Amino acid sequence: MRTGVKQYKLCGNLDLIGQILSEATGKP
Q: CB–CB of 22/28 below 8 Å?
């Protein structure tokens, strides 16, 4: 259960980082 939560948080962080990078670079 904990490993699933860690993976979910990791995916969420990567998704958030991707949005920030896309906004910073001006790409959609």
A: yes
Token pair 């991707």 is found at 18
**pLDDT greater than 70 at residue 22:** yes
- Please, what's the b/e burial string for 2-28 (b: 16 or more CB within 10 A of its CB; e: otherwise)? eeeeeeeeeeeeeeeeeeeeeeeeeee
Which residues neighbour 15 within 8 Å (Cβ) at sequence distance 6 or greater? none
Question: pTM of the full predicted structure?
Answer: 0.49
Amino acid at 13: N
